[in-house]
Amino acid sequence: MCASPAQSRSACMANPKFKNNSIKRYRTMMTEEIRKKAEELGKLLKDSDEVKAANAAKAVYDNDEAVQQAIFEYNTQNAVLAKEYQKDEKDEVFMETVKKRIGELYNEIVNNAAYTAYVQAEEQIGNLMKEVNDELNFQITGERPQSACTGNCGSCGGCH
Which of 110, 121, 138, 145 has a Cα-to-Cα distance from 156 of 20 to 30 A? Predict the structure, then answer.
């Protein structure tokens, strides 16, 4: 019988005492080990500079009254415009005025320092998660995606 997850599956299968119950237990132990490693990885990611920076940027963004007010008005104006589109007789002048205001609000939001810092921090997390996923895929398949080139040869597994 398999004594631990470290014992290979083929060694377990070769053991005549190994039964279906043991296979299930082995799979459960392997699944649990994978979950534990995923938990460890999650904790490492949570403690990473990228996640800490994103959390700090989100707090600034969430507490920036100007950008939050602009987002609220932006959403309200979009709802007003959607209602106007549903009418049989649309007020084109009104719709153009609302569209113009939506554009102004959009520019105000995307040019807000708190918003841009938050978006950039989230992009960094996305990049980190892609690197982690690419590494997991490499460990499983032995192949690196061609788009994995970061431009930094220190992280490279070799050019294609």
Answer: 121
Other CB atoms within 10 A of residue 99 CB: 14
User: Does residue 69 lie in a domain region?
Assistant: no
Give me the number of domains the chain comprises: 1
Residues ≥6 apart with Cβ < 8 Å to 62:
68
Phi, psi for residue 18 in degrees, rounded to 5: -75, 120
Q: 75-119, pLDDT tens digit by residue?
A: 999 999 999 999 999 999 999 999 999 999 999 999 999 999 999
Residue 32 resides in a domain:
yes
Under 8 Å between Cβ of 87 and 95: no
DSSP secondary-structure letter at 47?
A: T
Amino acid of residue 44: L
In a domain, 157, yes or no: no
